[in-house]
């Protein structure tokens, strides 16, 4: 099955870490199982109405709704829950506090535009560093 959005394929157990700069703000978590397509996922509400979504976790996320976390906080494990062809992290970005498909934007373009291209470690508010050699997705 194919889907829109970047995914980090995984053959090993990888942790999923929050990508919010704690110096600027915290975030809210929704670890509920609302969608059969993604099953175990986390939505993180950032300042400015941005929502980042981490999907297909291997088990229930390690965080609860309403919990404030900081950058680097482990929020779950990469898995293959929901409609998935294998273990990977599916990552989405939504704008205007709209977590529906209507609010979704191209996450690769968005991350590049805010100075945090996917796949490269950066030190800013929005960063997703995929480094399987270190056992993490940060």
UniProtKB/TrEMBL annotation:
Residues 35-98 form the M23ase beta-sheet core domain. Pfam families: Peptidase_M23. Keywords: Hydrolase, Metal-binding, Metalloprotease, Protease, Zinc. Its cofactor is Zn(2+). One of its GO terms (biological process) is proteolysis. GO terms for molecular function: metal ion binding; metalloendopeptidase activity. It comes from the Bacteria. InterPro entries: Cell_wall_metabolism_enzyme, Dup_hybrid_motif, M23ase_b-sheet_dom. Coiled coil: none annotated. This is M23ase beta-sheet core domain-containing protein. It comes from Phytohabitans rumicis.
């Amino acid at each position: 099955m194919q889907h829109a959005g970047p995914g980090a394929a995984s053959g090993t157990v990888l942790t999923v870490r929050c990508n919010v700069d704690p110096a600027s703000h915290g975030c809210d978590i929704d670890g509920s199982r609302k969608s059969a397509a993604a099953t175990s996922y986390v939505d993180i509400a950032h300042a400015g109405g941005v929502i980042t979504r981490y999907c297909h976790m291997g088990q229930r996320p390690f965080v609860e709704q309403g919990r404030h976390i900081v950058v680097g906080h482990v929020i779950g494990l990469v898995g293959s829950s929901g409609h998935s062809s294998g273990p990977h992290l599916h990552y989405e970005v939504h704008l205007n506090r709209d977590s529906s498909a209507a609010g979704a934007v191209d996450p690769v373009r968005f991350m590049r535009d805010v100075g945090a291209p996917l796949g490269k470690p950066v030190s800013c508010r929005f960063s997703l560093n995929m480094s399987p050699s270190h056992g993490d997705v940060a």
